[in-house]
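Re: the 82-residue chain
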Amino acid sequence: MASPRLLDEIGSRLAELAASSPAKDLEKNVKALLASGFSRLDLVTREEFEVQGALLARAEERLAELERRVAELEAGQRGSAG
């Protein structure tokens, strides 16, 4: 069985090789290209999206409450007019 030190050395050499390979440069270029493309789009972060979702839910609750109150007021007017 290979010693842990030998395995660590092989692992570090493979990591070194991968870091200096053309594939690593290609990966960096693709990431930069994607980042550039995404920066041109009007995107929001997950946090911003969740905050807006919470605000929308709160607004919908408030609207439902106001609709209920208006219906009660209208029912009260109909009852007193008749």
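The chain has three helices and no strands.
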